[in-house]
TrEMBL record:
<feature type="transmembrane region" description="Helical">
    <location>
        <begin position="106"/>
        <end position="135"/>
    </location>
</feature>
<keyword id="KW-0812">Transmembrane</keyword>
<keyword id="KW-0560">Oxidoreductase</keyword>
<dbReference type="InterPro" id="IPR013766">
    <property type="entry name" value="Thioredoxin_domain"/>
</dbReference>
<dbReference type="GO" id="GO:0047134">
    <property type="term" value="F:protein-disulfide reductase [NAD(P)H] activity"/>
</dbReference>
<keyword id="KW-1133">Transmembrane helix</keyword>
<protein>
    <submittedName>
        <fullName>Protein-disulfide reductase DsbD</fullName>
        <ecNumber>1.8.1.8</ecNumber>
    </submittedName>
</protein>
<feature type="transmembrane region" description="Helical">
    <location>
        <begin position="209"/>
        <end position="232"/>
    </location>
</feature>
<keyword id="KW-0201">Cytochrome c-type biogenesis</keyword>
<feature type="transmembrane region" description="Helical">
    <location>
        <begin position="5"/>
        <end position="24"/>
    </location>
</feature>
<keyword id="KW-1003">Cell membrane</keyword>
<feature type="transmembrane region" description="Helical">
    <location>
        <begin position="30"/>
        <end position="50"/>
    </location>
</feature>
<feature type="domain" description="Thioredoxin">
    <location>
        <begin position="232"/>
        <end position="368"/>
    </location>
</feature>
<dbReference type="GO" id="GO:0017004">
    <property type="term" value="P:cytochrome complex assembly"/>
</dbReference>
<dbReference type="Pfam" id="PF02683">
    <property type="entry name" value="DsbD_TM"/>
</dbReference>
<dbReference type="InterPro" id="IPR003834">
    <property type="entry name" value="Cyt_c_assmbl_TM_dom"/>
</dbReference>
<feature type="transmembrane region" description="Helical">
    <location>
        <begin position="71"/>
        <end position="100"/>
    </location>
</feature>
Length: 369
């Protein structure tokens, strides 16, 4: 566990040294595509299409480090395991690294990642002191577990691609994953053979759940063909058509786009005498896209924003100008909303996703009262 923790600590210090360049690296479409391809390869291995193994020569050399019962051997295996299982904690690890990269604090970077690894190591210590009593026994049930992890890995790959692919295409990929998963669940298998009768309860439950997943996949596919983008509301395009047929359409709020601090200051000067909403936004920001669809396209929000001057700060490039903007307002990253009163004084700053009701409440509290 200490070997693993020290490896993560080194990663934390490296993130603090490289600063925001690490964030820009992880936002590159080529990097996102590479991660997605890696997860697809891992998922196909889980489904049994092939076995992913290190070359025999490397396996033989590594195996020597784990023998002998010495603390040094266990320490080296901890270092190697940190490098091997790192992708399995991609979400919390990436979040911690990006935060450390933003602060640039070497001491904080090392300690934070060291403690993260210690937390990851607690289950290993518990299992180790139990002499293996807590470990489940191997069996055929593990094939089902592998299939579940395969689906999860494919889902992660689609989630990565959702940052760079059009919304309808992403929704089509979710539809394909749901439909294929339903087939693996036995949605269309016959329940008349002897094996199914023996395990009838679980087989029927899995088959029924598979049919539900299949139906949801069909809904996702129909929504994708209609131009939908929301996984939880795949048929939203059809609902929207019914709503707009009976209510007048409102124009989507128009934002003045800026990409540097000087441009933002000039836009704020020009807007003096009017309340202003400043929206920090990036193309790769999933929550920013969510706010565009759920918040800024909401009719009530559009009506409330009509008296305001709207400015959008585009930090997609993650260059020096973007870093200066974020640093000036002490922001970790998009999305973020700033409210400026008609006198040109900033009266509120909110970081993270703002739903329609929350944004309306903030507008009422800070700019109306």
């Amino acid at each position: 566990v200490l070997g693993m923790a020290l490896t993560y600590a080194v990663a934390g210090v490296a993130a603090a040294v490289t600063g925001s360049y690490l964030q820009a690296f992880f936002q590159n479409p080529w990097v996102l595509s590479g991660f997605s391809a890696l997860f697809v390869l891992l998922a196909l291995s889980m489904f049994g299409f092939y076995e992913l193994q290190m070359p025999t020569a490397i396996q033989s050399r590594l195996s020597r480090y784990g023998k002998g019962g010495h603390f040094s051997s266990a320490f080296i295996m901890g270092i190697l395991s940190a490098l091997i299982v790192g992708p399995c904690v991609a979400a919390p690890l990436a979040g911690a690294l990006l935060f450390i990269a933003h602060t640039g604090n070497l001491l904080l970077g090392g300690i934070a990642l060291f403690l993260l690894a210690l937390g990851m190591g607690v289950p290993l210590l518990v299992i180790g002191t139990s002499a293996g009593h807590f470990l489940p026994k191997a069996g055929a049930w593990m094939n089902g577990v592998k299939a579940i992890f395969g689906v999860v890995l494919l889902g992660v790959a689609i989630w990565f691609l959702s940052r760079i692919l059009p919304g309808p295409l992403t929704l089509a990929l979710w539809a394909a994953l749901a439909i294929i998963s339903s087939v693996y669940m036995g949605a269309f298998h016959s329940a008349s053979n002897a094996q199914n009768r023996e395990h009838g309860g679980w087989k029927h439950f899995a088959q029924g759940f598979g049919l539900l997943v299949f139906a949801y996949g069909i809904a996702l596919g129909i929504g994708a063909l209609a131009g939908g983008t929301l996984v939880l509301e795949p048929l939203a395009p059809f609902v929207d058509r019914d709503v707009t047929a009976t209510t007048p359409q409102n124009a989507t709020p128009h934002f003045t786009m800026v990409r540097s601090l000087s441009q933002l200051q000039a836009a704020l000067t020009a807007a003096k005498g009017h309340p202003v909403l400043v929206d920090f936004w990036a193309k790769w920001c999933v929550e920013c896209q969510r706010m565009d669809v759920e918040t800024y396209d909401n009719p009530r929000v559009e009506h409330a924003l009509q008296p305001l001057t709207l400015i959008r700060v585009d930090v997609t490039a993650s260059n020096a100008a973007s870093r200066e903007l974020l640093h000036h307002f002490q922001l970790f990253g998009p999305p973020a909303v700033l409210l400026v009163n008609p006198d040109g004084r900033m009266v509120a700053q909110y970081e993270g996703y703002e739903g329609p009701e929350t944004l309306l409440q903030h507008l009422q509290q800070k700019l109306v009262n």
